[in-house]
C-alpha cells in the first residue's frame, strides 16, 4: 500500500509531458528504472561472489603458486 | 500490484537452491583436483585455440544468424500479414541496438570499470582449466539469465521491461533480440560473464557465448529443427534428453504462446534460455512436442516501435496499453479473437 501511494505521489510530479505521447518520463518511471537496476545488480553480484569465493579458496588451498600470466586477452562480445 | 504468495515462495526457494548450483562446478573442480592431483597452471590454452574461438565468436555467429534470417525470409516463414511496418521497425531497431549500444557499453565495463572496482584482480583465476571454466560459465551465465528472465515475468512491475519480447504475433530468429532497450542493456548475465572474463576465464566464455547464441536463436526461429526428433520413434530417446536439457523450438514457442488454453502454450513458465534444465529443476517447465496456434500477447494493439524499444522514456499512444502513460502495470489477458472455443481456437500444429 505504502509503495503504491509513494508511486502515485511521484507520478504527479511529471518532468515533462506533451500531447504527442513522447518524453513522458516521470519520477515514478525513474524510480522503477532504479529498482530494476538494483535487482540486476543483486542477481549479478551474488553469483559472482559465490564463484569468486570458491575459486579463491581453491587457489589458496590447491594451487599454491605465483599468479599465472594471462592466457588470453580476448574479449567477450554478446550477440543478444 | 503484489506478487502472488505462492510465486514469491517459489522464487525464494529457487534462489536458495541456485546458490548451491552456482557453487557446484567450482566444488566439483576442487574435488577433481584433489582426487587427481591435477596442476591446472601447466596446461594453458594455446594462442591458436584462442584465436579460433575469438574469430568464430565474432564473425561465425554473425554469419550464422544472418544466414538463418535469410532462410526464414526466403522460405516464407515470417507471417507477412502480421509483420507490418511497425513490427519490422521494432525488430530491426532491437536487432541493431545491441550491436550499436550494448557492445560499446559492455566493452567499457570490462576494460575501464572493472579495473577500477577490482584493481589487481585481472586474470587472477587464469589458471582455471578451459573445460572447467566452460562448465562454470555455462552455469553462471545461463542460470543468471533464467532468474533475470523469470523475475521479469513474475514480478509485476518488471513485466513492462520484457513485454516487447512477447508482443510479436509470430516467431523468428529476430525474436531473440527483440527486447526493450533497458532490458537489454541491464542483462545481468552479460556483466557477470564479463567479470569472470576479467578474472581470467575469457577463452571459456567465448565458447559458451557461441553455443548459447546458436541455441537461443534456433529456439526462437520459425525453423522447427526439433520436429524430426518427435516424428521418428528411433529418435525419441534423444528428444527426451534434448527437450529437458536445452531450449527447443517446441518448449520455447510454448513460452511465446498467446494463450495457455490449448494445453500447448505456457507463457507462465519455460523461462530457460540455453538450458531448459533450470525449468525442470525449479518446477516451471511445460514440455510440449507441439507448437502453439497463436503467438504474442492477447491484448496487444500494435504499440509504436519507439515505445516498445524505449519505454519508459517514450510512451505508447495506444489507450489502455501497459506502455501508455496512464496504462496498467499488468493488463488482464483477453480471450483470443480467433479462438473462441477450445475446439476451434487452439488447434495445435501437429509435430508429426
Give a written overview of the molecule:
The complex is a heterodimer of chains A (80) and B (352). Chain A is an all-alpha fold. In chain A, 60% of the residues lie in helices and 0% in strands. Chain A has one domain (2-63). Chain A contains 2 helices and no strands. In chain A, α1 crosses α2 (27-63). Chain A is rod-shaped. Helix content of chain B is 57%, strand content 0%. Chain B has helices at residues 5-36, 47-74, 85-117, 130-154, 163-167, 181-185, 188-220, 227-231, 236-245, 249-255, 277-282, 305-310, 342-345. Chains A and B meet through α2 of A and α1, α2, α3, α4 and α7 of B.
Total number of distinct structural domains of chain B: 1
How does the major sheet of chain A shape up?
none
Helix content of chain A: 55-70%
CA distance, first residue to last residue of chain A: 37 Å
The SSE order of chain A reads: HH
From N to C, what is the helix and strand string of chain B? HHHHHHHHHHHHH
Q: What share of the residues of chain B lie within helices?
A: 55-70%
Q: By helix and strand content of chain A, what is the structural category?
A: mainly alpha
Q: From the structure provided, what is the oligomeric state, counting identical versus distinct chains?
A: heterodimer
Question: Can you give the mean pLDDT of chain A?
Answer: 68
Question: Which terms summarize this structure?
Answer:
heterodimer, A: 80 residues, mainly alpha, 2 helices, 0% strand, rod-shaped, disordered N terminus, disordered C terminus, B: 352 residues, 13 helices
Compose a concise summary of this entry.
The complex is a heterodimer of chains A (80) and B (352). Chain A is mostly helical and 80 residues long. Chain A has helices at residues 2-12, 27-63.
Tell me the layout of helices and strands.
The complex is a heterodimer of chains A (80) and B (352).
Chain A (H helix, E strand, L loop, with lengths): L1 H11 L14 H37 L17
Helix pairs in contact in A: 1-2
Chain B lengths: L4 H32 L10 H28 L10 H33 L12 H25 L8 H5 L13 H5 L2 H33 L6 H5 L4 H10 L3 H7 L21 H6 L22 H6 L31 H4 L7
Amino acid at each position: 500500500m505504502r509503495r503504491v501511494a509513494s508511486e502515485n505521489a511521484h507520478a504527479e510530479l511529471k518532468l515533462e509531458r506533451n500531447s504527442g505521447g513522447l518524453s513522458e518520463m516521470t519520477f515514478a518511471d525513474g524510480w522503477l528504472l532504479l529498482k530494476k537496476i538494483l535487482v540486476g545488480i543483486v542477481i549479478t553480484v551474488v553469483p559472482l561472489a559465490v564463484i569468486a569465493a570458491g575459486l579463491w579458496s581453491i587457489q589458496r588451498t590447491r594451487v599454491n603458486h605465483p599468479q599465472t600470466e594471462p592466457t588470453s586477452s580476448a574479449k567477450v562480445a554478446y550477440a543478444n | 500490484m503484489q506478487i502472488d504468495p505462492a510465486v514469491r515462495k517459489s522464487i525464494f526457494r529457487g534462489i536458495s537452491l541456485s546458490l548451491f548450483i552456482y557453487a557446484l562446478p567450482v566444488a566439483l573442480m576442487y574435488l577433481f583436483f584433489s582426487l587427481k592431483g591435477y596442476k591446472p597452471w601447466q596446461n594453458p590454452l594455446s594462442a591458436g585455440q584462442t584465436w579460433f574461438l575469438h574469430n568464430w565468436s565474432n564473425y561465425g555467429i554473425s554469419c550464422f544468424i544472418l544466414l538463418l534470417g535469410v532462410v526464414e525470409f526466403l522460405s516464407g516463414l515470417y507471417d507477412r500479414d502480421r509483420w507490418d511496418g511497425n513490427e519490422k521497425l521494432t525488430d530491426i531497431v532491437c536487432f541493431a541496438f545491441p550491436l550499436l549500444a550494448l557492445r560499446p557499453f559492455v566493452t567499457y565495463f570490462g576494460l575501464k570499470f572493472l579495473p577500477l572496482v577490482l584493481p589487481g584482480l585481472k586474470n587472477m583465476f587464469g589458471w582455471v582449466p578451459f573445460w572447467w571454466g566452460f562448465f562454470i560459465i555455462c552455469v553462471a551465465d545461463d542460470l543468471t539469465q533464467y532468474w533475470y528472465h523469470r523475475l521479469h515475468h513474475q514480478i509485476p512491475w518488471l513485466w513492462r521491461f520484457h513485454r516487447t519480447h512477447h508482443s510479436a504475433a509470430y516467431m523468428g530468429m529476430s525474436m531473440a533480440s527483440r527486447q526493450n532497450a533497458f532490458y537489454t542493456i541491464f542483462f545481468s548475465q552479460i556483466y557477470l560473464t564479463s567479470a569472470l572474463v576479467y578474472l581470467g576465464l575469457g577463452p571459456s566464455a567465448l565458447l559458451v557465448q557461441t553455443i548459447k547464441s546458436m541455441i537461443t536463436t534456433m529456439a526462437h526461429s520459425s525453423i522447427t529443427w526439433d520436429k524430426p526428433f518427435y516424428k521418428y520413434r528411433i529418435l525419441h530417446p534423444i528428444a527426451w534428453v534434448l527437450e529437458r536439457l536445452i531450449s527447443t523450438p517446441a518448449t520455447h514457442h510454448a513460452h511465446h504462446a498467446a494463450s495457455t488454453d490449448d494445453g500447448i502454450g505456457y507463457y507462465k513458465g519455460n523461462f530457460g534460455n540455453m538450458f531448459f534444465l533450470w525449468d525442470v529443476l525449479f518446477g516451471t517447465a511445460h514440455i510440449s512436442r507441439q507448437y502453439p496456434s497463436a503467438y504474442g500477447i492477447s491484448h496487444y494493439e500494435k504499440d509504436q516501435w519507439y515505445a516498445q524499444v524505449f519505454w519508459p522514456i517514450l510512451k505508447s499512444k495506444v489507450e489502455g496499453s501497459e506502455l501508455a502513460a496512464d496504462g496498467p502495470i499488468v493488463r488482464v489477458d483477453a480471450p483470443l479473437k480467433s479462438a473462441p472455443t477450445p475446439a476451434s481456437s487452439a488447434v495445435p500444429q501437429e509435430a508429426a
